[in-house]
TrEMBL record:
Lineage: Bacteria, Pseudomonadati, Bacteroidota, Flavobacteriia, Flavobacteriales
Record has Plastid as a keyword: no
Cofactor entry: Mg(2+)
Pfam families: NTP_transferase
Family per record: Belongs to the glucose-1-phosphate thymidylyltransferase family.
EC number of the protein: 2.7.7.24
Catalyzed reactions per annotation: dTTP + alpha-D-glucose 1-phosphate + H(+) = dTDP-alpha-D-glucose + diphosphate
Protein name: Glucose-1-phosphate thymidylyltransferase
Record domain Nucleotidyl transferase: where: 2-237
Matching InterPro entries: G1P_thy_trans_s, NTP_transferase_dom, Nucleotide-diphossugar_trans
GO MF terms, alphabetically ordered: glucose-1-phosphate thymidylyltransferase activity; metal ion binding
Keywords linked to the UniProt accession: Magnesium, Metal-binding, Nucleotidyltransferase, Transferase
Class of this enzyme: transferase
Database matches in CDD domains: G1P_TT_short
Length: 286
């Protein structure tokens, strides 16, 4: 399975913070935001990753992440000229995906919780599609899943004015290779976007869409607003201070997944000087 991080968009809900910089490069406590979705894909065992950016932000992402070799991965880059919808990622990334299955994660989504790695790895050998449902107080901001009394999925709607449930769909999707053709067939919505909901409904119609409900031990943040960005920062700070572990540390994930050696982590740590992040990497080696 290959991975795609969609890190485009204009980030208008965060203006003026994002007038001159991509929101996925903003800090969430002690790391750039993109470290969190990147670490999620790496925890799934995905090492070939396409990072889709806006035209003017791509150089900054390349300067930050490079070609992925330092993490035992392979990163490629592509451009989304305009925010034409999430499903456009599969069209832009068609050549990158090739004949493989693919996981798409949004660059402003953060996942944390016990069992996260197993949950991710359980979906890398996929036939059909797999998404997740997470209970929220404001489901009208997201794609919404409707269940019957037996837990069977009845419908999926994109940002409905009157949601049929409290279960939102986080920005993490697993699909087999057919998703590329399905994306090319999607007609733009009234919002003028190639909606990811259309692809989910296609798999649902075929009876090949799995929807897993994230339990209470799992935490998800969509950091697209000022309040949610601050909430995520406070959460990461609290966990890291209390447990002395870092969330979204890509070098640590690479080490735990045996993508790189302790010697490589030590070399990376030396590049961070006396920063707290660099010191944390040194403790991993010790």
């Amino acid at each position: 399975m290959k991975g795609i991080i969609l890190a485009g968009g204009s980030g208008t809900r965060l203006y003026p913070l994002t007038v001159a910089v991509s929101k996925q490069l903003l800090p969430v406590y002690d790391k750039p935001m993109i470290y969190y979705p990147l670490s999620t894909l790496m925890l799934a065992g995905i090492r070939e990753i396409l990072i889709i950016t806006t035209p003017h932000d791509q150089t900054a992402f390349k300067n930050l992440l490079g070609d992925g070799s330092a993490l035992g991965c392979k990163f490629e880059y592509a451009i989304q000229e305009h925010p034409n919808g999430l499903a456009e990622a599969f069209i832009i990334g068609a050549d990158f995906i090739g004949t493989d299955s693919v996981a798409l994660i949004l660059g402003d989504n953060i996942f944390y919780g016990s069992g996260l790695s197993k949950m991710l790895q359980d979906h890398t050998q996929i036939e059909g599609g797999a998404i997740f449902a997470y209970r929220v107080k404001d489901p009208n901001r997201y794609g919404v899943v409707e269940f019957d009394s037996d837990g069977t999925v009845l419908s999926i709607e994109e940002k409905p004015q009157v949601p049929k449930s409290k279960y939102a769909i986080p920005g993490l999707y697993f699909f087999d290779n057919r998703v590329v053709d399905f994306a090319k067939e999607v007609e733009p919505s009234d919002r003028g976007e190639v909606e990811i909901t259309s692809i989910q409904n296609k798999y649902l119609e075929l009876g090949e869409l799995k929807v897993g409900i994230m339990n209470r031990g799992m935490t998800w943040f969509d950091t697209g607003t000022i309040d949610s960005l601050n909430e995520a920062t406070d959460f990461v700070k609290a966990i890291e201070h209390r447990q002395q572990y870092k969330i979204g540390c890509i070098e640590e994930v690479a080490l735990l997944m045996n993508y790189i050696s302790t010697k490589k982590v030590q070399a990376i740590a030396s590049n961070y000087g006396k920063s707290a992040y660099g010191n944390y990497l040194k403790t991993l080696v010790e």
